[in-house]
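Listing S7. Sequence submitted for prediction.
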Amino acid sequence: MTTRTHGPTHKLLLISESQHALNGLNGFVNSQGYSCIIADSCTAAIETIKRSNFDLVILMANSGPQPWRDLLYFIKERREQLPVIALSDSRHFAEFSSLLHTPSIYLLTTPYNPLELDKTIKDALEQRRISFEFNTLQERIKQSEKMHRFLVNHSPDIIYILNERGEINFINDRVESLLNVSKDELIGKHFSTLMSDEECKQHPFVFNERRAVKRLEQRAELHLRKRLGQDVNGALTTLSMPFEISAMGIYEIERRSSKPQFRGTYGIARDITDRKQAESLMRFQAYHDLLTGLPNRTLFRDRLSLAISHSKRNGSKVAVMFVDLDRFKLINDSLGHSIGDQLIQAVARRISESLREGDTLSRFGGDEFTLLLPNIHSQEDASIIARKILNELKQPFFIEQHELYASGSIGIAMYPDHGEQLDQLIQNADIAMYYIKANGKNSFRFFSEKMNLAYVERLNTEQDLRQCIEGEQLFLEYQPIFNMQTSAVYALEAYIRWNHPTRGVLIPGDFLNVAEETGIIIELGAWVINRVCADLEEWANPILTIAVNFSPRQVEDPDFENMLMSAVKAHNVSPHQIELEITEDLLVGDIALITTKLKRLSRLGFSISVDDFGTGYSSLSCLHRLPINTIKLHESFLRHINNQYQSGDACIVSAISAMATGLNVNLVAEGVETSQQKDYLMNLGCHTMQGRLFQGPVSSLEARHIVVAPVLTE
C-alpha cells in the first residue's frame, strides 16, 4: 500500500488486547503517514494518555465496551475533546451508545474496511481540528470583549450600526476625528445626515443594506461631509471627503415563520483620501512628464489623434512642431544634471507662455519638446508661434548664478499637407527639426520631401561616420596663414577631410553637423589633434603653429583638457605650437566655466583664437575677460569690398580691426581672394591673412614643403 503524507504528522494511540490485531492496525495506520503508540490494556492506555497528548484513539474492542469502561469514562471526563474510533462487532454498538453519549466517538464494525477506516480517521481528525478551533475562538471572544471595544473605538475606520429605518444605533469614536461630528449628536439620526442630498440619491443602500454574508466582498465609494465650521453668515460649511463603504444586512430569524427578518445594517466607512490622491498622482504620472508637469508622448498622441478627427470634420489644419534645444547636452554635461533639469523647466515655462489656449506642449524626453496647434488655417499661423518661441529662447536664462543661452531648432509638419496619419506627422516634424539642426540651427522650417531625402542621407552619414576612423578614411589638409609684413608663413590651419568609400572626398560641411549631433565629434576631435601633433613631430619645426578648430561641444567636454595634453605629450610637441580655434557659440554658454577652462589651457601654453568672429552671438563685454590671442575675421565680410571700400561690410571690418587693436589681439582675415581685399586690410593694419589669393588647403606632404620654404610668392 502506498504511503501518503498528511502535512504535520498526527499522533495516534492504538489500543487492543490482541497483539496480532495491534500489529496489523499499526502497519496500516503507519502506511497512511501517521505516528502511532500502542497499548495492550485499559490501564496501560489510561497511563499513556496521561503522559502524552494524542490526536486520536483507535480502540479495537471485539469483546464489547465493558472491558474498556474505565478508559472511555476517563476520556469523557478528562479528555473530552479527544476523539475515539471504536472497532467492534456490530452486536456491541448498542452497548457503546448507552455507555458513552458523545459526538467524538466513531463506531466501525470489525473486520474493518481499510478505506472506511482511513476516511473515518480523516473525518475524526478534521472534526477535532474544527472543534478545537471553535472552542479556542469562543474562549478568545470571551476574553477579548474589552479589547474589542477598544479596537472599535480606536479603529482608523468609522464603524456604525443602523436600524431598519437607516437610523444610527451605534457609531464609534472615529467619526469625531474624521468628520468633526460628535457621535452622541448622531445617535438616533438618519445616516443621510452625513451625506449630501445627491449622494443619498445615488447610494440609498448605505442605510438600507440588505446584502447577506456571502456578498461581503462588494464595496462602494461615496462622499461624506466633514464639518469645518460656520461662515460669516452663520451657515455651516462642510468639506466633501471620499470614503469606501463596506456594509451588510443584519437579520433575525422570526420564530413563527423561521424566515430571516431584516433588522438593520452593519457597516464600515474607510477614509480613502490618501488613496484617491495616490491614484490621481499615478494617473497624472502615466500621462505627464514628471520633471516639467507637461503632457508626455502618450497624452500628446491622444490629443493629436483627437485634433486630427476634429480637423477632418471642420476642414481646419493641425500643426505638429518638434522643438530641440541647441547645445543642451553641453550645458548638461558641463554644469551637471541639476542645472540641466532647471533649464528644461525654465524652457517649458517660456514656451508655454507663447502658446494659445487649446495648444498642447509636451516633453518627449531629454531636450525635445513637441507642440500641437489645432484649428489653424495656414502655415503662417504656425510660423507666428514658432517665431515667438525662438524669440523667447534667445533671452538669457539665469539659473544658480549661471547665465545660460538655449536657442532651439523647430521642425513643423502640417495636417493634411505633410501627412494624414498621426505617426507620419510626428516623424515628418522630427525630420524637419533635424534638417534645421544640420543647417545652422536656431530657426524653424516646414517639412518638405527633399528633407526626407536629406534625413535618409543623414542616417547613412551617421552610420558611416562610426566606421570612418577605424577604416582609416580620414586625412588632414593644411592652409597656410601668411604674415604680409614678412612674406612668410605665420601658421597653418588644419582641415579634416573624409575619403568616403562611395561619395568621394567630403569636406567638414558634409558631415560635421551629424558628428556634432551624435557625439561622434568628440572622437573626431581626438583623432585630429593626434594627427596634427604627429605631423608636427615629423616636421620637427619648433616655431611652427598649427590652428585646430574645436566646436563648443568638444571644448565643453569634461575630458577636453586631458585629450589635448595626452596628444602633445605622446608626440613630444609643445602646447605653444597648438592654437585652439573656438567659435563665438561657445561664449554663450556658462561664461564663468568657459573662462576658467580657457585660462587654464592658456597657462599650459595653448593659444586661443575666436574663429568666424562677427557671425555668432557672443557678448563683446566678455571678450576682454578671456585669454584670447587672435580674432579671425569671417570671409563673408570681405565679399563686397571693392576699390571704393564703401560697403557696409567694409564698415564692419574697420570696426572689428579697431576692436582687435584695442584688445591687443592679433587679427587674421580669412577667405582673402582679391588684391583689393588684401590692400584694404593692409591699410587697416591687418597684416595676417589666409585665402586662395595666397594658397588653398594642401596635403600634409605639400604643407611640409611650405613650412620648409615659407616665402610668399608675389
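Caption to Listing S7: primary sequence and predicted C-alpha cells for the chain studied. The radius of gyration is 46 Å. The chain has a mean pLDDT of 85.
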